[in-house]
Amino acid sequence: MNPDPVLEGHIEELVGRCRGLHEDTGLQAVAQWKATRDLGVAVGTLPIYVPPEIIHAAGALPVGLVGGGDQLDVVRGDAYFQSYICHLPRSMVELGLTRRLAGLDGVIFPAICDVIRNLSGVWTLLFPEQKVWFLDLPQNFHDAVGGAFYADQLRELAQDLGDLTGRGYHPDALRRSLSLYDENRRLVRILHRARRRRPERIPTYEAYLVQRAGHLLPVEEHNDLLRRYLRLALARRRPALDNARIVILGAFCEQPPLALIRSLELAGCFIVDDDMLLGNRLLERRLDGPGDPLLRLARAYLSPDRTCASIYDAGQRRTGALLERVRRLRADGVVFAAPSFCDPALLDRPVYQKALEQAGVPYTALKYAENTRQLGSFREQVGTFAESIRLWGDAPAPDPPRRSP
What is the pTM of this model? Predict the structure, then answer.
């Protein structure tokens, strides 16, 4: 089964463009977008989730910020934080101090952990020319309490953004934005569903780059890019491989180096599910419709469609959800890949490991930093893990797969 060189050339060109956006730590794509508008406003958002619809409805460009990755050497950023926290805030400060983020008119910091919370204060002191928002997230998940609180937070943010762009806040504009991002989330779900079914055609390396391109592109353009990639990738002719099907867990905030994702795949793994770039995958239901759009956004967050270590799990459903994903996706094992010093991920890991041991699901664990360059040991560790699954069949017999939502 020989690949079609013309088709592969088109895919390589598209993925290459996404790779360029991945490496665009200076936000040149954002500068180009702003240059085409009389009053272009760009607003950065920290992981893991800030509703981009609110920024878009105000006429601004939402820009996803996830640090500099392995494209950036941190020199000055280390001076602002203690050594025993994750790498992301140091990387963000380095980007700011080197003027790579000067094109942003504001930055939103969601309250997902103490590190991001404190980074908002550091940012206010270091970069007073940029507007800073701290988006407090609900800890009470009752609609009348946490829902009302979060809706008020979103309303204040929407009004501030409207003042920044001069457009004000208009519910109809937000409804139109909700519809566009509903389509974006639908296409991302299709991308991951196709990756699970035909991982030889859609490697995680490519799917990650295509999804991450949405951090810098307008949502309309990203939707077109997703449709084009899916059309091309699903037409590929590639032989099926006897790789181990694994789930990655713990990479929801600070992102792993792209080379680490490649290393896991080259080690003999098909990554059939993960929590990387979780922001536009938390909510899978449609959000447009009648009623107050801010209330719809707030209520959706109170019952997210995916669990996450940084969101209060009122029903204690995380372990059950993980085991169900392993069964439904016919996964052979789980790889815990968490950033060093990520308290939410590392505190959850023993609970997950106990559940996996009781269910007889193999797992292994590693810790990374976003600028990790020595990946040989990771590849050897995961390669040994995948080979043991193939040789000795440690994974339990899975239930028949069901259609993903």
Answer: 0.92
